[in-house]
C-alpha cells in the first residue's frame, strides 16, 4: 500500500502532537525538577534526612508500580479520556504538593502525581501510536516525542534551578498546573482517537496486583540499595520479592484469557529488543545526570541554575539526533543501523567523562561529552520508541506504550542505585588509601574533592560499558527492516503486513 492509497489520516494530528508532547514533557521533567528544589523544601517543611529521599521515591514507586495498569486503563477507557483524566489528576496533585504544609502532605501529593502520571504517560504515547500510521509521519512524530522523553530530564534540571533560585521550590510543582491547563485545552479541541481501537476485555485483577506490587518492590529495592547497601536485608528482601511477584505475573499472564500484558507484546523479537535496549541505555545514561550535577555544583562551584543550563547542549544534541538525523534515516535504513551507533556514541561520551578532574573545566570534557551523549541517545530513543509500539494491535497500544515507560522507570531506578553504590565505594577506597597525604584542613578538603571525582570517574567507566551493552542488545535482537510503505499499525514486528483492517474513523 503506498501513501496515495493510504487510509484517512486525522487532519488535526500535528496540532495534537504539540499537546501530547507538552504532557509528556511535564511527566518526564518531574523526575528531576523536584531534585534541585529538595534542599529548600526540606528546610521549609522540616523534612528529616531519613524522609528526604521519599519525596523522590514516593513518586517513583507509584509511577513505576501502576504503569501497566495505567496502560490498560487507556486501552479500556479510551486514550483521549485517560489522557485528560491523567492531566487533571496530575495538576491537582501538583497543586496539593505546592501548597504542602508538612512532610506527609508533600509525600502524599508526590505519590498521587506518580499515580496519575502512570495513567497519563501510556495514554500520551499510545495516542501517537494510533494517530500516526504512515511510516514517514510516524518517524517525525516519534522523533519529537523521543527527544522530549530523553531531554525532559535535563530541561527539568534547568527549570528546577531557575524556579528554585528566583521564585520558590513550590513553583517546581505549581508549574505543572500551567502545563496541564494548556494540554487539557488542546486535548479537548484538537485530539481525536480512532473508533474501534479500545480493549473491551475485563480487567485482569490478579495481573494488576502482581505487576503493581512486583514493579514497586523492584523500584523500592533498588532505591534502598543506594542508601542501605546491596547486602542489607531490606534491599535483598524487596528485590527477591520483586523477582517472585514478577515471575508469578508472567505465569498468570500466560494462562489468563484477558491478560493485563499479553506476552505477545514483549516476546516479539524487535519489540522486546527495543524494551531491553531502552532499559539498559537508561541505566547507563542516569550516570550523566546523577554525577554531573554534583560535579558542576560541588567541584566547579556552579549555582543550581547555572548547572541546569550546563545540560542544555545535551538537549540540543538529542534534538538533532532524534528529529533531524533519525527521522530522515529511519525509513531508509534498518532500525539497528541507528540504534547501535547511537549507543556507541553515548558510550564514547561516558569515556570522555571518565577524564574529569578537580581542576578541569566545563569546555574541555563536559561540553563535548554532553553533545555526544544527547546526539547518541537521540539515535537510540526515537527508533526504539517507534519500534516498541509499532505493529502492536490497537487494543494493546496502551499497555505496549506503558512497557516503554516501565523500561525507563526500572532502568532509572537500577541506574541510580547501581552507579551510586559503585561511585560511593570507589570514593571511600580512594580517600582511605590517600589519607596519609592529609596534613592540613585544606589538604582534607582537596582530598575529599579528588576522592569524589575519582568515584564519579569509575562510575562513568561502568556507564560506558552499559551503553556498549545496549548497543550489543540492539545489534543482536533487533532486525526490523526500513519502513517506507503505507500504514503500519497492524504490521508484524519485522515490518511485514499482518492484517488488513478498515480505515479508522476519528472522533472525539
UniProtKB/TrEMBL annotation:
Region (Disordered): 484-508
Claim: Cell membrane is one of the keywords in the record: yes
Membrane topology according to the record: Multi-pass membrane protein
Pfam families: MFS_1
Subcellular location as annotated: Cell membrane
Transmembrane segments: 16-38, 50-70, 82-101, 107-130, 142-163, 169-191, 203-222, 234-252, 273-296, 308-330, 337-356, 362-384, 458-478
Family matches, as InterPro entries: EmrB-like, MFS, MFS_dom, MFS_trans_sf, Sugar_transporter_CS
Protein name (record): Drug resistance transporter, EmrB/QacA subfamily
Amino acid at each position: 500500500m503506498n501513501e496515495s492509497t493510504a487510509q484517512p489520516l486525522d487532519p488535526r494530528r500535528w496540532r495534537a502532537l504539540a499537546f501530547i508532547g507538552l504532557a509528556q514533557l511535564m511527566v518526564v521533567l518531574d523526575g528531576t525538577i523536584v531534585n534541585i528544589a529538595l534542599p529548600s523544601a526540606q528546610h521549609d517543611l522540616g523534612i528529616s534526612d531519613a524522609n528526604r529521599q521519599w519525596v523522590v521515591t514516593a513518586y517513583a514507586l507509584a509511577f513505576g508500580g501502576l504503569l501497566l495498569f495505567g496502560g490498560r486503563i487507556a486501552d479500556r477507557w479510551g486514550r483521549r479520556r485517560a489522557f485528560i483524566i491523567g492531566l487533571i489528576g496530575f495538576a491537582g496533585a501538583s497543586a496539593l504538593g505546592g501548597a504542602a504544609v508538612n512532610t506527609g502532605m508533600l509525600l502524599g501529593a508526590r505519590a498521587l502525581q506518580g499515580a496519575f502520571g502512570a495513567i497519563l504517560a501510556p495514554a500520551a504515547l499510545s495516542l501517537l501510536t494510533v494517530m500516526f500510521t504512515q511510516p514517514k509521519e510516524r518517524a517525525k512524530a516519534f522523533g519529537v516525542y523521543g527527544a522530549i522523553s530523553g531531554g525532559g530530564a535535563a530541561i527539568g534540571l534547568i527549570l528546577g534551578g531557575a524556579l528554585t533560585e528566583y521564585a520558590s521550590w513550590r513553583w517546581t510543582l505549581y508549574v505543572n498546573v500551567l502545563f496541564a491547563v494548556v494540554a487539557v485545552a488542546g486535548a479537548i479541541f484538537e485530539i481525536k482517537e480512532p473508533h474501534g481501537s479500545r480493549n473491551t476485555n475485563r480487567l485482569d485483577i490478579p495481573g494488576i496486583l502482581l505487576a503493581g506490587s512486583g514493579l514497586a518492590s523492584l523500584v523500592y529495592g533498588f532505591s534502598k540499595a543506594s542508601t542501605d547497601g546491596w547486602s542489607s536485608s531490606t534491599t535483598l528482601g524487596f528485590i527477591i520479592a520483586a523477582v517472585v511477584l514478577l515471575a508469578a505475573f508472567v505465569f498468570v499472564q500466560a494462562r489468563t484469557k484477558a491478560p493485563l500484558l499479553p506476552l505477545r507484546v514483549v516476546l516479539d523479537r524487535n519489540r522486546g529488543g527495543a524494551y531491553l535496549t531502552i532499559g539498559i541505555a537508561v541505566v547507563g545514561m542516569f550516570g550523566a545526570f546523577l554525577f554531573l550535577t554534583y560535579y558542576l555544583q560541588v567541584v566547579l562551584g556552579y549555582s543550581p541554575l547555572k548547572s541546569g543550563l550546563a545540560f542544555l547542549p545535551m538537549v540540543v544534541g538529542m534534538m538533532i539526533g532524534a528529529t533531524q538525523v533519525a527521522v530522515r534515516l529511519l525509513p531508509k535504513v534498518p532500525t539497528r543501523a541507528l540504534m547501535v551507533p547511537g549507543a556507541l556514541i553515548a558510550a564514547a561520551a561516558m569515556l570522555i567523562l571518565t577524564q574529569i578532574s578537580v581542576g578541569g573545566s566545563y569546555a574541555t570534557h563536559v561540553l563535548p561529552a554532553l553533545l555526544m551523549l544527547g546526539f547518541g541517545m537521540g539515535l537510540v530513543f526515537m527508533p526504539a520508541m517507534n519500534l516498541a509500539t509499532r505493529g502492536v494491535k490497537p487494543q494493546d497500544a496502551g499497555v505496549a506504550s506503558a512497557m516503554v515507560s516501565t523500561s525507563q522507570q526500572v532502568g532509572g531506578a537500577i541506574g541510580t542505585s547501581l552507579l551510586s553504590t559503585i561511585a560511593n565505594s570507589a570514593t571511600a577506597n580512594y580517600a582511605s588509601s590517600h589519607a596519609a597525604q592529609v596534613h592540613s584542613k585544606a589538604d582534607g578538603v582537596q582530598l575529599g574533592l579528588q576522592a569524589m571525582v575519582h568515584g564519579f570517574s569509575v562510575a562513568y567507566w561502568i556507564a560506558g560499558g552499559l551503553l556498549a551493552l545496549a548497543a550489543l542488545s540492539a545489534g543482536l535482537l533487533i532486525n526490523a527492516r526500513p519502513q517506507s510503505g503505507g500504514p503500519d499499525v497492524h504490521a508484524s514486528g519485522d515490518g511485514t503486513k499482518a492484517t488488513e483492517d478498515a480505515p479508522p474513523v476519528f472522533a472525539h
